[in-house]
Amino acid sequence: YVLQNLKILAVGANLTPSAEGAESEASTLTLAIDPFEAPRLILAAERGSIRLLLRSPIDDTILEIPPAEMKDILSGSKARNQDILTGSATNNKEGEVHVEN
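Request: output the structure for the sequence above.
Response:
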C-alpha cells in the first residue's frame, strides 16, 4: 500500500455527494493528505497506476500489508485464514455488524 485512511474531498468535479445510490464515474479524486505524504503519492502516480480501495468509514485501523508478488497471488501461499460465518448479518447505525446463525 502507499497510503491509508485518506479522506476523499471530491470525486471528479463534484464537491457534494451525489444522490444516494446514484452511480458516478470519475477519473479524478481530490484527497486530503498530509504534506509529508504527498511525495509518496506523487512517486506512485509517476511510476505506476494508483488504485483505491474503500473500507468502512468506521474502520481506521492502519494495516501492515506486505508487498504482493505474482508468485504468491498465483499459489495462494500468503492468503490469510479467515473464519467463515453463516447466517444473516445486519449492520446498525453505529456500524456494528450482528450475525445471527
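The chain has two helices and four strands.
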